[in-house]
TrEMBL record:
UniProt name for this protein: beta-fructofuranosidase
Domain Glycosyl hydrolase family 32 N-terminal: from-to ranges: 18-284
Keywords noted in UniProt: Glycosidase, Hydrolase
The EC number(s) this enzyme carries: 3.2.1.26
Superkingdom of origin: Bacteria
PANTHER family: BETA-FRUCTOSIDASE (PTHR43101:SF1)
Example GO biological process: carbohydrate metabolic process
Source species of the chain: Hungatella hathewayi
SUPFAM superfamilies membership: Arabinanase/levansucrase/invertase, Concanavalin A-like lectins/glucanases
Length: 465
C-alpha cells in the first residue's frame, strides 16, 4: 500500500497527462485493473487532483472510453491544453480489434471541457489518422503547446515508420494549427533512428533552453531528453540523458509559475515478485526538475513530499562517523525501522581511492539479507540489487542503475524514500526508483568497500500523523 506515492486502490496507475491550473495539478491518467493482466480491460482517463503530491482527490473516470466497436475502445495517452476559450484533450483512440480488420488501430482524437471535469468528445469532427508512410498501429500520445514565435499551435506525437516494427525507425512527428481545429501535417520533428518507437513526447522551455522528452522503446525502456536553443532543434544529447532507471516510465512534465515536475509511473513486477520482469503500469512518483548552468536537467525530491515526513528522535543515531577499511567491506548498522513508509537521509563524503560505498535497507540482522544501492565510484554509477545474491539470481535488476558522477572529499545528500514496495534513491540530483517485494529484515545500514566514507547527520523520518 502506498501512503505518499499515488496509486488508486485496486488499479495500476498508467500514463499520466498532467495539467496545472490555479494552484492545483490535474492528473489525468489510465487505470489498469490487471484483469487478467495489463490492458486486459479497456479504460478511459481517470482524474486525481493534488496541490502537494501527497494528498490526492480522486475524481474517478472523467473521459469515458468508447464501445468495443468504436475507435476509442481504449483511451490511450494524450495531453490537456487550454486554448481558444476552452480546455482541450487530445488523446489516442485505440481499438485492439481494428488491426485484424484492416483498420487503423490508433487515431488521434479530441474532446473539450469548460471545467476540466466534464468532457465532450468531438467525434468525427476532429480526428488525425496515421499519415502516409507511418505505421497505423503506432501513432499515439499527442502533446500540444503554443509556439509564441510562430503564433501557432504545435502538436507532437510518437510514431514509427511503416516497416518491420523491430527496425529502429521510431520518431516524433508533428502538426501545426492556428485554431486547434484545422491541422497541417509537417512530418518528422525528431527522427534519430535510435529506438523502435517514441512514446509520451513532451516539449517545453526553461530559460533559454528547449527540452524534448520521449520514452524510448528499446532495450533500456526509460524516459530520456534532448536539449536545444531552438524549439525545432538541433537536439543535443547530454552526458546523462535520462531522469531515472528502467522502472520509471512514460514521464510527462508540468509546471506552476516557479517549478517544473515530472510525472511518471514506477512499474510493478509480474506477480509482485522480485525475480520477475517489469510490467506496464504501477505507482505514480513525482520528481522536481533541476536545471544546471549548462542547461542539463537533473531531479530532486519535491519539497512538499519531504515536508510530509517528521523526524523520528532516536538515541541510536550519531552526528558523524567514519567507516573505513583497506581491503574488503566494512558495514555499520544505522537504525531499525519496521514502518511501511519512511524517509532516510544522511550526508556522505568519501576519500580519494575509495572503490565503492552503499546503503542497505530491509536488512536481516542475522543473515545480512538486504536490498542495496551501491555507488561504484570508479565505474561512475549507482545500481540496485538483492544481497546476498544466492541462489542466483534473486532480483531481476536489468536497468536498475544510473550514471553517477561524484568527487572525493565533497559532501552529498543521500536520501531514500520507502513507500510500500516502491523505493526511491536521490543522490546528487540523480534518482533511481525500484521495487522491493520480499523484505526479510528491518535494519538500515551503510557500508564501504576498499576505502573510507564519512557519514554525517543520519536522520530517519516517519509520516506525519
Amino acid at each position: 500500500m502506498q501512503n505518499i506515492y499515488y496509486q488508486p486502490e485496486g488499479y495500476a496507475f498508467g500514463d499520466c497527462m498532467p495539467f496545472y491550473k490555479d494552484g492545483k495539478f490535474y492528473l489525468y491518467h489510465q487505470r489498469d485493473t490487471r484483469n487478467p493482466g495489463p490492458f486486459g480491460e479497456p479504460f478511459g482517463w481517470a482524474l486525481a487532483v493534488t496541490e502537494d503530491f501527497v494528498h490526492y482527490e480522486d475524481k474517478g473516470e472523467v473521459l469515458l472510453r468508447g464501445e468495443d466497436t468504436e475507435q476509442d475502445q481504449f483511451i490511450f495517452a494524450g495531453s490537456v491544453f487550454e486554448g481558444e476559450g476552452q480546455y482541450h484533450a487530445f488523446y489516442t483512440g485505440y481499438n485492439r480489434d481494428f488491426a485484424a480488420e484492416g483498420k487503423d488501430a490508433q487515431v488521434l482524437m479530441h474532446a473539450t471541457s469548460d471545467d476540466l471535469l466534464h468532457w465532450t468528445k468531438s467525434a468525427d469532427k476532429l480526428k488525425l489518422p496515421p499519415q502516409m508512410g507511418y505505421d497505423p498501429n503506432d501513432w499515439r500520445d499527442p502533446y500540444v503547446l503554443w509556439n509564441e514565435d510562430s503564433k501557432e499551435y504545435i502538436l507532437i506525437l510518437g510514431a514509427h515508420k511503416q516497416d518491420n516494427r523491430q527496425i529502429k525507425t521510431g520518431c516524433t512527428v508533428y502538426f501545426t494549427s492556428n485554431d486547434l481545429e484545422h491541422w497541417e501535417f509537417k512530418g518528422d520533428f525528431w527522427a534519430p533512428n535510435m529506438f523502435c518507437m517514441h512514446e509520451m513526447p513532451d516539449l517545453f522551455c526553461i530559460g533559454d533552453w528547449w527540452y524534448l522528452l520521449t520514452t524510448e522503446y528499446s532495450e533500456n525502456n526509460k524516459t530520456i531528453y534532448r536539449k536545444s536553443r531552438s524549439i525545432f532543434g538541433p537536439w543535443q544529447m547530454p552526458d546523462d540523458d535520462a531522469f531515472d532507471g528502467r522502472a520509471y516510465y512514460a514521464a510527462r512534465s508540468c509546471g506552476d509559475s516557479e517549478h517544473r515536475y515530472l510525472f511518471g509511473w514506477v512499474a510493478s513486477k509480474d506477480q509482485d515478485m522480485d525475480i520477475n520482469n517489469w510490467i506496464w503500469g504501477g505507482t505514480l512518483v513525482v520528481h522536481e526538475l533541476v536545471q544546471k548552468e549548462n542547461g542539463d536537467l537533473k531531479v530532486k525530491m519535491p519539497d512538499s513530499v519531504h515536508n510530509a515526513f517528521v523526524e523520528k528522535i532516536s538515541n541510536d543515531l550519531f552526528e558523524e562517523k567514519v567507516i573505513k577499511i583497506d581491503s574488503g567491506i566494512n558495514e555499520v548498522i544505522i537504525e531499525e525501522c519496521d514502518e511501511e513508509t519512511f524517509l532516510f537521509e544522511t550526508v556522505v563524503s568519501f576519500k580519494s581511492g575509495t572503490h565503492a560505498f552503499g546503503i542497505n535497507i530491509f536488512e536481516e540482522k542475522e543473515t545480512g539479507d538486504a536490498y542495496r544501492f551501491e555507488i561504484e565510484i570508479k565505474n561512475r554509477k549507482v545500481d540496485f540489487n538483492r544481497t546476498p545474491n544466492l541462489p542466483w539470481f534473486r532480483y531481476m535488476a536489468q536497468g536498475s542503475e544510473r550514471p553517477l558522477f561524484l568527487e572525493a572529499e565533497k559532501e552529498y545528500l543521500l536520501q531514500v524514500v520507502v513507500d510500500g514496495t516502491v523505493v526511491t534513491l536521490y543522490l546528487n540530483n540523480t534518482a533511481l526508483n525500484v521495487r522491493a517485494y520480499e523484505p526479510k529484515g528491518k535494519n538500515i545500514s551503510l557500508y564501504v568497500k576498499d576505502g573510507s566514507v564519512n557519514i554525517k547527520n543520519p536522520r530517519l523520518y516517519l509520516l506525519k500523523n
